[in-house]
Predict the 3D structure of the following.
Amino acid sequence: MDDRKIIHAPLDLREHLERLEAKDLLTRIDEPVNKDTQLHPLVRWQFVGGLPETARRAFMFTKVYGSDGRKFDTPVVVGVFAANPDIYAVGMGVPEEEIGDLWNRGIAAPIEPVSVDDAPCQEIVIQGEELRKPGGGLASLPVPISSPGFDSAPYLTATLCVTKDPETGIRNMGTYRAGLKATDRLGVRMATRLTGAGGYEHWQKYKKRGERMPIAIVLGAAPIIQYTGPQKLAIDLDEMAVAGGLAGAPLRVTKALTVDLEIPADAEIVIEGLIDTDVVEPEGPFGESHGHIALEEFNMPMEVTAITMRRNPILPSIVSQVTPSESSVIKKVAYEPLFLHHLQKVLGVGGLTGVVMHEPLSNLRPIIFLRFKYGIPQSEIWRALHGAATLQAQCGKIVIAVTDDVDPHNADAVFWSMAYRSNPIKDVVVVPYRSRTHGPKQDDTANSTMLIDATSKNLMPPLALPAKEFMDDAKTLWEKIGLPTLSPQAPWHGVHLGDWGETWERFAQAAVKGQWEQNGKISLQRRRSSDDVHPETPVRRVEKDI
Ligand SMILES: Cc1cc2nc3c(=O)[nH]c(=O)nc-3n(C[C@H](O)[C@H](O)[C@H](O)COP(=O)(O)O)c2cc1C
């Protein structure tokens, strides 16, 4: 019997938007907004404007126009999949803390989709000359420019690129960028490195057969389907079945009209086409998630054979480029649980309490932090360091283990831990040979890995800040006086880190009651001759019962 919980994820984008609106996570912008110059920069401000992650929102632009003056009826939504983890959780239909378990369940027990004929994504069909007429085809969609001033074209970013292995028939759905080239042509970029894009492996097989590759670019599927696009799944795992596993029920697919592929039936827009495997065409520049503009590369031209859509469709777009961004949140929320699961359940590492991928600027993959309980044997810590560095080719160039009183979201705390808890000569290991990091390269030297054990090797004295009760009390006073509003930055109060003594506890308690002279009388009785005891000798080296 299947004992999985029934998940109540929204099963199409519209239901998701309603839920976001009900939770006050969606902002509608009814002002006219230029998709080529204003739309992405406006949403970008919530990532670079000093707002906390929790204040980020999804946006719906209802009056979109282009720099050529053209007005679009189709609204554009941005940030609706993953402006922050709260929004992602709405899309998964579970509270944020259950997202990791749900991913592990979905991957472990995929559910095959069901094929239907009544597909909303095909209510409107654009084909033939309609695709080629001026302003028709792709030009009729309000596709925004992500990095105005640098990008060469409007780009589809919230994609699910559906392809099929010509030998096994197994489907792949990956999120790849696709730049507009003509009303009926796109430039698609699929990572060609080993273990790169699944779609590229299919492309290679079609090329060998001398055939064009059928592809369907799906826009605006249910979030639970969309989230499988950037997730790193085994090549032979059908993302649609994993999405079913996440939903706890089979999801609806339908046959594409002009290519031999099945696509999510309830998506907003589908662009069907063929990739010519004989030719490549310059594509880019385009602002990438590694934080630089990707310069022009030869990539795959896609000839559009049909555009199908719902009546009154909605076009989604994802803010990527310099992180944090929607693109990094969508990956962070999905990757961290996979790493934790692998280290805890597959490698059986003991004492590991969390995996955090570093998000600001570095874009998750290169730097990973592992959190451990205090007192875990170093053999476990080093197994985890190596495991995190090798699970995925692109992830874990620098892996740092910390004890879990250190919050890796605070880079200062990590530096503090490295400064006081690691000895580089024995706690840092550099391992040769790893694949090149995503992004522009610095030189031709083979890449490498740095592993750092910055965990606490010994119990430590308390963190030197006033105890929590005193900081709380002082905050109340601060607010009563009307001083500027505080946003506490951890660590903001002292905590015990294992090394302390009853005598010192008594002293501290007496001091806060104003009884410091009593403490002085006690220390007077404990004096020693300086002939016997050198200054700076720890007291407990002399007195054993501290
Ligand atoms: C917004 C966004 C854009 C992305 N663009 C690309 C891209 O252009 N090419 C690519 O290979 N991967 C891109 N990725 C990363 C892939 O989606 C990711 O590696 C995914 O695992 C690929 O799926 P696959 O293994 O099924 O190919 C992008 C991810 C996001 C979130």
Remarks:
- The radius of gyration is 28 Å.
- The longest strand covers residues 297-309.
